[in-house]
Fold each of these.
Amino acid sequence: MDAIFLVDICGTFAFAVSGVLAAVERKFDLFGVIILAFVTSLGGGTLRDILIGSTPVSWMNSDVHIYLILLTIPLAYFFMNTLVKLKKTFLLFDTIGIGLFTVLGLDKAIEVGLSPVVAIMMGVVTAVFGGVIRDVLSNQVPLIFRKEIYAFACLSGAIVYSSLNYFGLFIEFNLMISITVVISIRLLAIKNKWSIPFKPLAKRN
Amino acid sequence: MDAIFLVDICGTFAFAVSGVLAAVERKFDLFGVIILAFVTSLGGGTLRDILIGSTPVSWMNSDVHIYLILLTIPLAYFFMNTLVKLKKTFLLFDTIGIGLFTVLGLDKAIEVGLSPVVAIMMGVVTAVFGGVIRDVLSNQVPLIFRKEIYAFACLSGAIVYSSLNYFGLFIEFNLMISITVVISIRLLAIKNKWSIPFKPLAKRN
Amino acid sequence: MDAIFLVDICGTFAFAVSGVLAAVERKFDLFGVIILAFVTSLGGGTLRDILIGSTPVSWMNSDVHIYLILLTIPLAYFFMNTLVKLKKTFLLFDTIGIGLFTVLGLDKAIEVGLSPVVAIMMGVVTAVFGGVIRDVLSNQVPLIFRKEIYAFACLSGAIVYSSLNYFGLFIEFNLMISITVVISIRLLAIKNKWSIPFKPLAKRN
């Protein structure tokens, strides 16, 4: 439980930072920055909770997430220069976020008694849809449709997590391994410019 | 019950094909194709279930829909050449999908005890919003806002279905008639380029 | 209760008008106009109800909202010339809508037992997301991200409402004050072209 809460807090922070960076890049005003920080960090978990019928949505049961995000915004603003200089910062925070949220979503779906296949989907949804909603609200084609092995990384981590879970591994250990899998695949994919194109037969002619 | 299940499976298949075709046209990578297939075929029913509070969303209670869609993707890929040659294929599958899903959504809403007017709306939502979400995620103005008598076809079918239902017709018979109404109107509209423009008075000057 | 219902009806009407105006401006066909009227007026409350788990979503429990919106559409169409001549009409109806819906959403969230901070967020969500969904469906960056102190007005009204509520003021009185606060701030912001830019430090260099 405590390990899960820690993962939740870190993931929320990482995605809030990535939301602020995205909003600034798109020249939104203050309120746009706030909404994008909230949507990016809470969107995926919110969609998961709505789909599995766990309402009021989990972050609404306490004010912790709200205050965390409200604190992250000026923090990200203050260290903006540093963040922007480290070119890959946005991708890094985004990657950490998806790693943490994949296992979080999966864990919650298993808890509710959904099948492993559905649980793996919920892990991916939790990790990925905060960013998808962020991109849709910014009127952009979601990153996930165009770049890197983004979701493939989540999927791999989710499969690893549910396999290890099946064998009854300690949750803390399982969390660490699965999160590491997601983050490693994503970072390797970015570094080596991996991609899975989908060239339909029709285009060959 | 069995007839409803059959309608569900066929509609899911038809929309999954239309999702794959849309994704390929937009040059998404493999994961984008998968997401668009899922979103197009499950999106409308998901929104309906969320609105009426039937959660976990119905397709999450078994793995049937997930496997069906995962099988449809390579199938649509393999027959891509054939599908693309038949120019109207995308529209055909899309039309079959909306025909089937209109009555499906309506039936479910009536079952939950909602008023006929609300039930008709839920039929249209089920049929139409998979495509709307598909278009929003692809960063396009939803087809439904710009083309043909798309939703008018759904609406007509929904009204026919709930009228026949009121008179206590056999469900299998009712399903067949209503689905035929939707598909016929849509295909006639495409063939004859029907449209309902909405020229506001203000523009005349 | 009655005062709340009145606020609901007026807000729904105001947002439906703003939805029709937006659809006409974007040259949508009849069905697009209908969807945009529905989405703009029901979208915010729908999202709030889904988030707090109050389903079937409130407007689905009677046909009042549906008939109201269906009546508003030809009305807005008929008076289109007048509406368009009064340049600021769209903004006015939109502003009245957000004023009314802010307090409505907040009131409902408090009723369900959510914390004041979450309730204020739900007030803003109710007021703002109908317009956000309208803009996303029209493939535009939501107004809220780019213009004026839109959401700041909602936020102020929400804070005033929950403060007055805390001191046990008559609800009718409280409603009037809070709605006035939202509308005044928004109108003053439009008139004086207030905005809260968010210039990140990084951009200065």
Note: Chain C has one domain: 2-192.
Amino acid sequence: MKLFDVMFGRPLASDEAHSAQISPAVGIPIFGLDGLTSAAYGPEAAMTLLIPLGIWGVQHYLLPIFGLILTLLTILYFSYRQTIVAYPNGGGSFTVASENLGDRAGLFAAAALMIDYVLTAAVGISAGVTALVSAFQETKYGPQLHQHQMGMCLVILAAIALVNMRGVKETGFVFLVPTILFVGTLLTTIGVGVFEALSTHGHPIAHSMPPPPVDNPTTKLAGWLLLYLLLKAFSSGCAAMTGVEAVSNGVTAFKEPRSKNANITLTVIIGILIILLFGLSYVARAYGVTAMDPNATTYQSVLSIEVAAVFGRQWFYFLTMGSVLAALSFSANTAFADFPRMARAIAGKDYLPHVFLLRGRRLLFSHGIYALTGLTALILIIFRGVTDSLIPLYAIGAFLAFTLSQAGMVMHWHKTMDAPHRLIKMFVNGLGATATGVTLCVLLFSKFLEGAWVTALLVPILIWLMMAVKRHYTRVRAETIDPTPLRLTGLEPPIVVIPMANWDKVTEKAMRFGMLMSPMVKVVHVDSDDSDTLGKVWEEMVLIPVRASHMAEPELVTVKSSFRTILSPLMDYVLKLEEDFPGRKIAVLLPELVVRHWWENLLHGQRVQLLKLLLLLKGNQRIVVVNIPWYL
Amino acid sequence: MKLFDVMFGRPLASDEAHSAQISPAVGIPIFGLDGLTSAAYGPEAAMTLLIPLGIWGVQHYLLPIFGLILTLLTILYFSYRQTIVAYPNGGGSFTVASENLGDRAGLFAAAALMIDYVLTAAVGISAGVTALVSAFQETKYGPQLHQHQMGMCLVILAAIALVNMRGVKETGFVFLVPTILFVGTLLTTIGVGVFEALSTHGHPIAHSMPPPPVDNPTTKLAGWLLLYLLLKAFSSGCAAMTGVEAVSNGVTAFKEPRSKNANITLTVIIGILIILLFGLSYVARAYGVTAMDPNATTYQSVLSIEVAAVFGRQWFYFLTMGSVLAALSFSANTAFADFPRMARAIAGKDYLPHVFLLRGRRLLFSHGIYALTGLTALILIIFRGVTDSLIPLYAIGAFLAFTLSQAGMVMHWHKTMDAPHRLIKMFVNGLGATATGVTLCVLLFSKFLEGAWVTALLVPILIWLMMAVKRHYTRVRAETIDPTPLRLTGLEPPIVVIPMANWDKVTEKAMRFGMLMSPMVKVVHVDSDDSDTLGKVWEEMVLIPVRASHMAEPELVTVKSSFRTILSPLMDYVLKLEEDFPGRKIAVLLPELVVRHWWENLLHGQRVQLLKLLLLLKGNQRIVVVNIPWYL
């Protein structure tokens, strides 16, 4: 068990619970990496749509689009601050929506978020691996790496899962380094880029020239076509906002005062994200960077072009790109930090299996980690680790959850606060709900055929499944709940049935136990070869001593079996007995040989195990199975 | 179950046993295919060793070598006739050796034969597939077929196993066609070849010229080197004799009179085999055929060269080669017909698991078929379906068994018959034992390094395993045998332990059963979160009604669990109880929820199952487990 402890950490007692709680600094990588790393692909996602407009498009529309996205982000920031204060025990969309808008809305949010977390993990890992593969594309290892893309994704997934099974606190430190590197290198790039741009009056000289924009940019577009194009660019850019939900969902992981610490973390994350998004857009515009067609043979990401333009392709370029790769891979961790907590909240309302409620040996909700790992692996295998196929499914879930959560908060203030004070709070969350709701419609409209339909289909399926789980638990509770005291009337000894092949110590033990339990003992002997070995010794071995003790005589029942099967004649006998004696309990005593070594089991029939299973499956309330073990 | 019945046949009742017994005609393909098909590779195996001697070697030594082999075969034939008469209930080497030479000798024979049967199946299948692949080698499908060689072997193995699970009689008819084709085409080839040779005074004209012999044949060899070469050629040629054992082992499968029918079958098989071996050698010599180096790019088998020489490459050539392929693949069936019967005989003496004693739904010893299928698959996978690697392991086992069996028969006659009559019988079997014993030494000497060592190593390992199995059964019997009548003294009610999480209908049912079983009931509540839900209702739900009925009060035991585990505190409590009350039985009552659909099990913890397992593994003679099922 030593190696196991080294890999997964020693088990933690329940009263060590506080030690798994975290400070705001540690919270940033844990809950923020997902949001922060979206800066690496958000601007590019929008700029790709602006390619047809050439350099003119970037000059005119990039900053307005990101202005809009950052406004939306700011609205969300204030909305979520209020949520974190209102729900110090974890204010995930599921909790907020179900408490304020009813269970259906909560399920809606839950389904959306479950999809989104799995996609966060899958996209993070696959984007990291894809970037790594692209970086080495021109070396001789390129094609080989490309072949093993899915394998690498699964190895990284396994590593992340392992780290998370040790616990959140350790996870925080492990993930701190890539976060610092990612944020640090990008902020440096932005700082130097902005300084160069300002000191040259908006015309900095690139150290490495950006690739030229498209030859014939479409500068004249019909008004509504241009609007549609800008809407699509905006929609894609919204991928930069996924991950904002994370902090509010994970409030319970923070040290006391939880809400305050969580809000500090949220503020830092959103602040850095705004600087990164705005800064990268500004630098792109200043250096005249346009996105490249992802299918082009000379393709480079916008981030790569920008960093190369500001610094040239020297060591800092490679450090930055390396940090981006690391941070992207690690960003999957946000999902691992949050999914188990959300699953627990949903399971607490009976909509998911109750195993998600159990804390594991490291005080984590281990089953949530297993489930997320399994689902992510499934997604990675289905999509063979290719990010491009995953992106259109993404963000829909997040914005659906945003909208439901903010709408729920509006109801929350309406219910819990008085008229004059609540107005400002309701306005903030209402603005958030409206903004994200409209964005959701735009997303669905502009990305439906490209993959959003998968999410649109999965959400109702998940809701249906969760409702089925709830129905099951409700039924079980209804059928087993018992507010009445113990009834002690009608206690009648059961009919004891003992299957017996021959007379030995094992069956004698069963007989002794059976005689003790009830005066009505039936010994069943299945005879498949007319040898009747048991009948010959029955009188001498059993009846004579029983008569001498003046106890009730057990009955020997011999059942013929023409097909050499033992189990079905036995089952038939038990079921017939149950029919003949309505109201009586039947105790089937199964003598069982317990061997010392596992391989010895191969030398003995597994009939007793099969019979147990059969009795359980075909049996009913009145049939009880008693195992009489015999240890060799 | 309909499809199942179509595939495996309807189940047969025990009194239908005679319907699975066979006539001599049906017996030939079943027990003879292995022996007969060895004519396809036996001569070639010997001739390959004669390559260095060129055409001269074939002319001078081929007929003498096969004269020796056929003499050996004739001796074996008479030996085995006597065995079949003496052992009408199946006179496999195991039976004969263990009855007459003691258990050790029997085990020796059993181990040798088990290896040989598995190799028979593996070699037959792989030789068939290899031949098929070679035939298509020059077409565009060749390389593809070659890649899937092992896969094809496994598919054929599965098909043979399936046919055998239906039963022996049907198997006979299925295998009749390839046997008739194989024997018919080869006899025709020999007939035409011999006629041409005689009518041209020993100088027939080949329709398709055999490839030329080696350029510089070594006609002058030192005497002892030549002897060694001829011994090796003889050893390899002995592969043609494997499979002779089959009939004597399977006597019980024949119609009455068993021995007579079995002997008719044996006579026909050996007769045909002698004609085939001698005929093929004669034709090879007459047409000046020499073997080719198996690694040559233009390699053809001797059989292919002969048939082509006699008929040319027209339709009859392809028919003959096709029959050879089919018969080789099907020859694996001999092992399937015999292995299960032998395994039953060994299991009957406790040296193999007793499952081999059970007749399956089609009155066959199904487990023998499963075991042979599994082992053959393993061998095919290890050797990747390549015949060449298997051949040197082969034949050792068969000759070891021959020797032991014949030696056993000598003892048999010595013990059972009077002096004057027994002499001739003892002489026949003694001659057989001596001849096969000497051959075995030659085989081991000349093939040891090429693979015979594997067999030489496996035999003692198998013997050791079988002795371990026997020891186990002997120990179990010694520990459980009970020739004394039922003891009814000291019957004291057990201490009842009921694990309980909360008060509901399921636990109430367990309580009612527990109160019935014993006045000493201990309810164990594992408390991991200090909520003590059960303690709050205990008085009202349990104690008040119990006091009202004037019964013994059950005790509520609350156990703290700091690591949130439920099972280990429970186990600890039960084991401590067992220590505190020496001599008392402890009945652990486990209330268990039985769901309607399998997937509902995912929604409930599997703690009860785990606890059952733990109680079984860590428990002892005095702990009994009672399952109280609750059906939803």
Note: The two ends of chain B are 28 Å apart (CA to CA).
